């Protein structure tokens, strides 16, 4: 049995046009990983304030805005306002994040957190 699903077999067997380049001290992922890296200089990061990052991470950890608000001693509507502004900033740089999972991915891509933190 093949490990490559039939629907992506043509893509998986396509030649690689370039070699992946890894950040200093890291091994590049091989072509078999089939991943796209967003951690490069061409990707624009929004200018999030320290407080926006703090609120974002608290909300990502929490099961609700109310729980995050309690942790930060603010109201749930303040959490909602911060999250809305963060989404606007990501959309403004061409990287929309319309869901909580998309914001989680952006936080990882932009180095605000890692999978090891979770």
TrEMBL record:
Residues 45-102 form the HTH luxR-type domain. This is Regulatory protein LuxR. GO terms for molecular function: DNA binding. One of its GO terms (biological process) is regulation of DNA-templated transcription.
């Amino acid at each position: 049995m093949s490990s490559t699903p039939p629907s992506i077999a043509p893509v998986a067997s396509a030649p690689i046009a370039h070699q992946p380049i890894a950040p200093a001290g890291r091994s590049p992922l091989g072509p078999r990983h089939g991943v796209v890296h967003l951690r490069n200089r061409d990707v624009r990061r929004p200018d999030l304030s320290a407080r926006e990052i703090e609120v974002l991470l608290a909300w990502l950890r929490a099961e609700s805005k109310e729980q995050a608000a309690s942790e930060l001693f603010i109201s749930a509507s303040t959490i909602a306002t911060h999250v809305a502004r963060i989404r606007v900033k990501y959309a403004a740089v061409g990287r929309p994040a319309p869901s909580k999972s998309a914001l989680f991915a952006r936080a990882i891509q932009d180095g605000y957190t890692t999978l090891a933190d979770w």
